[in-house]
Amino acid sequence: MRENGRVTSATRQTGTPSDPTLATSLAQGTAAGPPPRLIATDLDGTLLRDDKSVSPRTVAALAAAEEAGIEVFFVTGRPARWMDVVSDHVHGHGLAICGNGAAVVDLHGGPGAHRFVKIRELARENALKAVGLLRDAAPGTVFAVEQTYGFHQEPDYPKLHMEIPDNLLPAEELLAPDGPDADQPVLKILAYHPSLDPDAFLTLARLAIGDHANVTRSSPSALLELSGPGVSKASTLALCCAERGISHEEVVAFGDMPNDVEMLTWAGQSYAMGNAHPDVLAAASGRTVANNDDGVAVVIEQLLANRVP
What we know:
Elements: H1 20-31, E1 38-41, H2 43-47, H3 56-67, E2 71-75, H4 84-87, E3 95-98, E4 103-106, E5 115-119, H5 124-137, E6 142-147, E7 151-153, E8 167-168, H6 171-174, E9 186-192, H7 198-209, E10 214-217, E11 223-227, H8 233-243, E12 251-255, H9 261-266, E13 269-272, H10 278-283, E14 286-287, H11 295-305
Parallel strand pairs: 1-2, 1-12, 2-3, 7-8, 12-13, 13-14
Antiparallel strand pairs: 3-4, 4-5, 6-7, 6-9, 9-11, 10-11
Helix pairs in contact: 3-11, 5-7
């Protein structure tokens, strides 16, 4: 989940549709496997441009995919309340996977009226254990707690999200059985360090926390996202596809940051954006141009052009 409202391109790598290497990557990706039945796309740094807009070309490509009978899932680290950026572009079923797989949300209700279809929570005992382990491994780490309808943070947690937290308390109090909004599921924990390298912080946290939580990141800063064990974009997408009788070979996925790696590895066809993190470039089966150059639309247009009538 990016800091809301900031420019968030990761390691910027240039590429254009006329680039021979890129053209080969696109052709390889769209030529193999069965026809796609579902497109799964990340938002920030992927579908959205850096100004958080959805370009007219991308809107048209998404609509054309749905018209061709291909379902489109938005799969993001964003919480449900931040999905207004794409609520006007909902077609078909209108489902989105939010919080890195922690929730499946029906967007049809429009801004402020999203309905939770599936919740995969982070148990409070796991969250408390993870917080304690990370405090010991990386002194200076500060935390925030994301719930279905609430956002709480520690007093020293920076104002990254352009929103007012519901409570300012130590994480241990926020996660206590009798803490604020104790009746609401915890979707994920955010952990921020003011000075560590983002990738080094991710590696350290994964080693320290182990199987108490799934740890990833999508921000260019040292901001980690902790979900329930086994909860990821990939695992929740797999559940949604199984409910629809869609195999992983029939899924085309797009992403740009480490929280997309599992999804890109799982999908039959996957594309790293031209601005993607090196780990994403290594995980994806193909590559497209950057988010600001409508990389998702470029691939969708070619997929549709290659469909057998």
